[in-house]
Design brief:
499 residues; Rossmann fold; Isoleucyl-tRNA Synthetase, Domain 1; six-stranded parallel sheet; four-stranded antiparallel sheet
Length: 499
């Protein structure tokens, strides 16, 4: 086994990207960058889910062709790579990448060849927003639990996948952590779901109801492959399932780990349906499903239809990609739901980034320029920091990793105030000053190296500044920018005055 496979889910392109997917992309990026820092060579994949009915419906509402519509928004999702400083190796669009359709057809035929696909009539309640059928007992007051809308009754002839055949195997794989689901409460949710008998899964839709958008069922163009069967296959189509077997063996079959980073709303698709499809096709299932929570905006659930969204591009334009990465990783986190507000975002930038870390670097490098850059030394304040951060990343607790780094930042600021190097410089004995500067530089070097996967641009600038003790403002304050943000976003309400 060689490299690790890491992926985001692929978002629908029925609207511009919002900050919820930015969280997922940044989490996966940290894991990939950490893997590289540890000497690995991960294959990091992202992309877009173009072949969805909701995309076709949104295009019709906008009065444009589905192709033009998905091309526009897919481009905006692709632009997140530079906007968020993501480092993925591959990006696949399900409607446009030549690797994808042949892989979906090959996967379908492999499952059919194993006797796991059959045709039957289906009656059920379908939520277009989820692209999912629901049993009445799964609804909340008759409404989709995810979108709060009434699913539409559907009756048609579809193809089905024998999901029920794989129930016991799934329980064994998940219960034994051969498919590890983190955090643990998400694993428990899936095991509870698997306590009830699994129903076979409808994996096609009529071409008429799908508006002709999507991939046709092999041998039956009157049916369109269910968007989730299609979309999940991106994880194997991109590394070459149908196009490059040596590459596929390297990136998937022989990978050291296969890690999917996903939101909590799609756990069932990744932890139940996807492994079962892979087992049916004779392929290796994922080894790890890492589940993050949702972001609310000022306490309210993100809703594209109500306009209650935040653009990652706009958030990056306000304070930079690393500031947004920090807010998402530390204040939303990788386990829980969390809230984004412009007011809180500005406070975090000013206090935790500009003041706590930025001022520490400014003060330290100013001392180095005045009294000389010390020789390399080991840090006492940051002793064990690298191992702690690595452990938190491996535990899928990226918020804890940043909390640990900022605890070291706080200890280092306290050390500056206690030792007062500017007073030590007045003494005839230079050794206390040299020792203090050596500790500061060594600690900041450890902090910078620990930050590389999380805030890559900031960490690189910090480490460069230490080499020559150059003047640097990691997080510049801009009063005009802040006042403009306050006017446009109303962030001043309830905000403490800036330092």
């Amino acid at each position: 086994m060689t490299q690790r496979f890491i992926s985001t889910a692929i978002p629908y392109v029925n609207a511009a990207p919002h900050i919820g997917f930015a969280l997922e992309l940044v989490i996966a990026d940290v894991i990939a960058r950490h893997e590289r820092r540890c000497g690995g060579a991960p294959y990091f994949l992202s992309g877009t889910d173009d072949n969805s009915l909701k995309n076709a419906l949104a295009a019709a509402e906008a009065g444009v062709s589905t192709r033009a519509f998905v091309d526009r928004y897919a481009d905006e999702f692709a632009a997140l790579k530079s906007e968020l400083n993501a480092s993925y190796d591959d990006f696949l669009r399900t409607s446009a990448d030549p690797r994808h359709a042949p892989a979906v057809e090959k996967l379908w035929n492999a499952c059919a060849g194993n006797g796991d696909i059959y045709e039957s009539e289906y009656r059920g309640l379908y939520c277009v927003g989820c692209e999912q059928f629901f049993a009445e007992k799964e609804l909340v007051g008759g409404l989709c639990p995810e979108h709060g809308t009434a699913p539409e009754p559907v009756c048609e002839r579809n193809f089905f996948f024998r999901l029920s055949r794989y129930q016991d195997r799934l329980v064994d794989l998940i219960g034994s952590d051969e498919i590890a689901i983190r955090p643990a409460h998400r694993k428990n949710e899936i095991l509870a779901f698997l306590d009830a008998p699994l129903l076979d899964l409808s994996i096609s839709r009529s071409a008429e109801r799908s508006r002709g958008w999507g991939l046709p069922v092999p041998g039956d163009p009157s049916q369109i492959i269910y968007v989730w069967f299609d979309a999940l296959a991106n994880y194997i189509s991109a590394p070459g399932y149908a196009s490059d077997q040596p590459r596929f063996r390297s990136h998937w079959t022989n990978a050291s780990r296969i890690s999917h980073v996903i939101g909590k709303g799609v756990v069932r698709f990744h932890a139940v349906y996807w492994p079962a499809i892979l087992l049916s096709a004779g392929l290796r299932p994922p080894t790890e499903i890492l589940v993050h929570g949702y972001i609310t905006i000022d306490g309210r659930k993100i809703s594209k239809s109500s306009g209650n969204t935040v653009s990652p591009r706009e958030a990056c334009a306000a304070y930079g990609a690393d500031a947004l990465r920090y807010y998402l990783l530390r204040h939303i986190g990788s386990h829980r739901d969390g809230d984004f507000s412009w007011r809180r975002y500005q406070e975090v930038y000013e206090h935790e980034l500009a003041n706590d870390l930025g001022n520490l670097v400014t003060r330290t490098t100013a001392l180095g320029r005045r009294y000389g850059v010390p020789a390399a030394a080991a840090s006492k304040l940051a002793d064990g920091l690298t191992a702690q951060v690595a452990r938190h990343v491996e535990d899928f607790a990226l918020h804890r990793a940043l909390e640990t780094i900022w605890e070291t930042v706080a200890q280092t600021n306290a050390y500056v105030n206690e030792t007062q190097p500017w007073l030590l410089a007045r003494r005839s004995d230079r050794r206390p000053l040299e020792a203090a500067l050596a500790e500061l530089y060594a600690t900041l070097r450890c902090i910078g190296e620990a930050l590389l996967p999380f805030l890559p641009e900031t960490a690189a600038r910090l480490l460069d500044a230490l080499v020559a003790s150059s003047a640097v403002q990691l997080f510049p304050r801009d009063r005009d920018r802040d006042r403009k943000l306050e006017r446009e976003r109303g962030v001043s309400a309830g905000r403490a005055s800036l330092p």
